[in-house]
Amino acid sequence: MKSKQKKPKLDLTPYKNDIRNAINRTKKNGKEVSLTYCGDTLSDFAKGTAEATEVRGCSIYDKRERKNKVILDFHTHPVTKRGTWGVTPSGADVMGTMEESYRQKQKQVSCIASPKSKNIHCFIPKKVPDKKKISKYRKGINAKGYYGKPYHYSAPDIDSTRYKDATEFDLMVKNDFEHIWIKKRDFKSIQENTKSKTSDAMDAKRFGNVDSIKHIIPDLDRSQFCNRNIQGYNDPTNHEMANDCTKRLNSRLPQDIPFISGLAHRFRSRK
Ligand SMILES: [Zn+2]
What we know:
The protein is α+β, with helices and mostly antiparallel strands. It has helices spanning about 15-30, 65, 90-105, 130-145, 160-175, 195-200, 205, 210-215, 220-235, 240-250, 260-270, and strands at about 35-40, 40, 70-75, 110-115, 120-125, 175-185, 190. Zinc ion binds next to loops.
């Protein structure tokens, strides 16, 4: 029997239409769309392509409104966007959520979906961060930016302090957040370790074909990448996610295209 984890409850149904419209817009124009909710209303700051690290208030026009607290933010990841994988939050995304939670003295809920994802991925800090925590996060995000590529674990020319800070950032992310996955189709949350989570987290399109990732992630960095940047940022207690991710990265055949993977399966079993 699995131990029952107490997951925070999250109901996105009041925002269903906005979320669907945002995803559709991204599908059409390939650009990121973000929504910010203050209470049940969409903030006037909601449209466009706000950066995750930007300080988002509840209204840029009304002073009184500005004092309201943000209760939820949602943004899309375009399928082709570089620097992110599927619905995996970027370093800047988690940083933004932490900064906002600190500023507002309340845990901020952040959610991400892509036009290709089956699910919406939401993450919430387990605790409101204190000043010390925030400065650690800032240090870490700077270090990660320095490397340019967050998965150069075996880079030979690393600056050890920055390497340590960047590593610490990933470990903090792994420990500091609760994750909730919600089906895009019916907005019901999923508890089980479905493979759709891994495929959403990895951006199936980009990682479907091993030839395209061979250049992105060196072979020796793959399991680290899957452990830290895929499992750690998406579903930290789900070890299947890292395993599945590594398997996909090392696979020689395209995956996630049901027709082709069906064929691949037949092809494999014939041998
Ligand atoms: Zn993002």
